[in-house]
């Protein structure tokens, strides 16, 4: 379980106040917020890329609170395909992620086949379309074999066929016991596989659409 207690986020201004949440394995959680509301910053903080200014984030497994090194091995976050180095290939990234994160080695060939990467998996990423880059990014999550996945707008650049493939990918990961936390826009089709959807509105963490409507009045 990944737990957040009394988290507040402030950059140039306060973005989120007193967030409390629990994220459990085998469940998918959506985060809906307008641009600039702090959802990407929240994912960076959960991933350990930014420090918390106020509040606590920790992970427990079998009643034991994990240390930072243990958490990093159980969690995978790759924010955007813009982070990919154009001189490397999808295969380079899949092999690196699998070696660096995976507790159990993933079947790289199976991942490549699932995402249809075979024709370009060894080409430099600078030759990829946006959709190809996004499929590479998503394949990296499978290669990580981690228990916790943090995803920022994971269907960005995917066509209809690959959106459907991604939905099945998410369903399968949840059945395998993954904890998936992703950001999305309102009415995103990802909500159909979410066990719970949270909203960030007026600097507050809200867990139902009804409460969002009440808060906006």
UniProtKB/TrEMBL annotation:
ABC transporter domain mapped to chain residues: 2-217
MF terms (GO), sorted A to Z: ATP binding; ATP hydrolysis activity
Pfam families from the UniProt entry: ABC_tran
Keywords: ATP-binding, Nucleotide-binding
Superkingdom of origin organism: Bacteria
Keyword Nucleotide-binding: yes
Gene3D superfamilies the record matches: P-loop containing nucleotide triphosphate hydrolases
SUPFAM superfamilies named in the record: P-loop containing nucleoside triphosphate hydrolases (SSF52540)
UniProt signal peptide: none
Protein's UniProt name: ABC-2 type transport system ATP-binding protein
Organism (species): Listeria rocourtiae
């Amino acid at each position: 379980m990944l737990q957040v207690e009394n988290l507040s986020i402030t950059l140039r201004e306060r973005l989120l106040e007193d967030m409390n949440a629990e994220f459990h394995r085998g469940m998918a959680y959506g985060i809906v917020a307008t641009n600039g509301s702090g959802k990407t910053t929240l994912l960076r903080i959960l991933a350990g890329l930014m420090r918390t200014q106020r509040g606590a984030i920790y992970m427990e497994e079998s009643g034991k609170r994990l240390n930072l090194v243990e958490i990093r091995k159980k969690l995978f976050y790759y924010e955007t395909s813009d982070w990919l180095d154009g001189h490397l290939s999808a295969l380079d990234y899949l092999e690196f992620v699998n070696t660096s994160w995976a507790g159990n080695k993933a079947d790289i060939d199976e991942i490549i086949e699932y995402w249809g990467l075979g024709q370009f998996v060894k080409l430099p990423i600078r030759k990829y379309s946006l959709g190809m880059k996004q499929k590479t990014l998503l394949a990296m999550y499978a290669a990580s074999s981690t228990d916790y996945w943090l995803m920022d707008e994971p269907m960005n650049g995917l066509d209809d066929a690959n959106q459907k493939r991604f939905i099945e990918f998410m369903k399968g990961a949840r059945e395998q016991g993954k904890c998936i936390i992703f950001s999305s826009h309102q009415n995103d089709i990802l909500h159909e596989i979410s066990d719970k959807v949270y909203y960030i509105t007026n600097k507050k963490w809200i867990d139902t659409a009804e409460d969002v409507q009440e808060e906006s009045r």
